[in-house]
Design brief:
125 residues; Alpha-Beta Plaits
């Protein structure tokens, strides 16, 4: 199975063309590493550090956490489906604010990436 940790150039360009001028939500499906290489932290602990570090960026982007929970099992879907460790839904005020946030100097994206073995980021509205 392929792991997805970064936005590809093609996905970024498609997102930039996507016509959305109002609030939207990003569904985050997250699978953590057991242990962060070169660290004593688990992936979950590392992700908590990312969330602390990203908070000022969220405030600037007028983003808010709508849902933060742990999924337990799949009711509809393949039995071999890889269970996610965390589900987050984050609401953003606009596409421009989201882009500014993730491209801001000092944005702690590397902390997120170190915490994860796999992820999905799905735009919803």
């Amino acid at each position: 199975m392929d792991a997805y940790l970064d936005l590809t150039k093609a996905q970024y360009l498609e997102f930039m063309k996507f016509d959305i001028d109002e609030k939207f939500q990003m569904l985050n499906l997250l699978k953590f590493v057991d242990k962060v290489p070169g660290s004593d932290l688990t992936g979950l602990e590392q992700y908590k550090e990312y969330m602390k570090a990203v908070t000022p960026f969220f405030i600037e982007a007028e983003a808010k956490i709508v849902y933060d929970g742990k999924p337990y099992f799949t009711l509809i879907g393949p039995a071999e489906y890889q269970e996610w460790d965390k589900v987050l839904i984050i609401e953003y005020a606009s596409k421009g604010k989201f882009i500014n946030m993730i491209s801001s100097p000092g944005y702690p994206g590397a902390l997120r990436k170190k915490a994860l073995i796999d992820s999905r980021l799905i735009l919803c509205q």
